[in-house]
Design a protein that fits this description.
alpha/beta; Quinone Oxidoreductase, Chain A, domain 1; Rossmann fold; 2 domains; 7-stranded mixed β-sheet; 5-stranded parallel β-sheet; 9 helices; 14 strands; about 25% strand
Length: about 300
Amino acid sequence: MKAFALRRTGEPPAVIDRPVPEPGPGEVLVRTTAALICAWDGHLAAGAPTGLGHEAVGVVEAVGPGVCPSYAGRRVGVEGHGRLAEFFRAPAAGAGLVPLPRTISDHQALYAAGALPTGFAAADESGPPPGGSVVVFGQGAVGLSATVSAGRLRGARVIAVEPEMKRQRLALRFGADVVIDPAYEDTTERILELTGGAGADRAIMATAAPAAATAARAGLSDGGRITYARCRPPRSSGARLARALRLIDEGLVDPTVITTHEFPFDRVGEAFTRLAAREPGMIKPVILFPRPVPAARRP
């Protein structure tokens, strides 16, 4: 099978050949149909050799010992590392794998496997009071997810901070009340103006920009709190994934508008390079895997 991974530390990731893994006890083998690339994959690429990708959907191809045979053939959303591969193993229960309802498309389910739960968890941890103010710094996929959760789901007044025009428009679409462009406005002064001089009740950091952290601290009210959006422990990911799927199914969130580019798997290296270079206008590239060739048609 083909997998997008690191060969050695310090080398760029590439598509490499690996044997199809065998599912162990309590595991399933998933054939990937689609996956997303995010900035976190770039951080992993700077570390030890590993598989990349942590947001994927696919079909259970085989089951390991102790797993009900009925799992075979199920569409599933999966969170975890090493998902940018034609096949991967995953625990059948407990964390990170959820059967997909027919009403949810692969494209929608991809966001439930990563960006949405991460942004939702940041908003939950932040806990903005209903009607209170929360500033969300960065409007990539995770920041947008925090914006929709803090505003539409928790009833807070959301101030988004984002310099890129396409992301600014998406922030408003995802429920931000106001968008601050830090390239043209003093972020702290604008936050204080919008909050009547009191400062924001909460700040959520969905960017690592140093200037954003400085503005967040200066723009908080007395007793305000900063929350950093980050990946949560795998043991909680199954429940978070299921919650995101439910909100998508109910029509409360449409994450597919975050996707800006599509690439076939044979161009995954190009997608990764362009995202890592922070190409203007690129937020989330989706990677589409080829459908299997029926045995009767194989040469």
